[in-house]
Here is the input.
Amino acid sequence: MTSMTLVRQIAARPALVFDAMTTPEGIASWWGPDEGPVLLAETDVRVGGSFRVRFRMLDGTEHESEGRYLEVIRPERIVMSWRWTENGETDEGDEESRIEIGLRPIDSGTELTFTHARLQSEASRASHQDGWRGSLDKLVRHFAQG
Here is the structure.
């Protein structure tokens, strides 16, 4: 198993970034690696609560993921399980992985540390890193415009 970590500085205070990462409206503004739309975002942000997000990429492909919130400390930490699904069914062979998000106040807003762990292969790590890089860059741009 392998993991990847990305760090971003965001021009908003941690509570606003936390909301963008946990509310359907917030998720719609940044989730997905390119400019394609979020089609569905459902969240129940509490320990044991679940989330589900479906997005369409610019090439027309659609992707859906789901998981459970394992730790929620507003506005500084979110830990959740993660897996890809297809039409509401768990992808065959796609093991559950783990996402940890840390939000720390800094002078310019928030330092976000995003770790996706328990990935099954180097190829999966590289693919997820590319996807999350695009998504987090959109999150940075979202607050830079605001």
In short: The first strand starts at residue 2 and ends at 10.
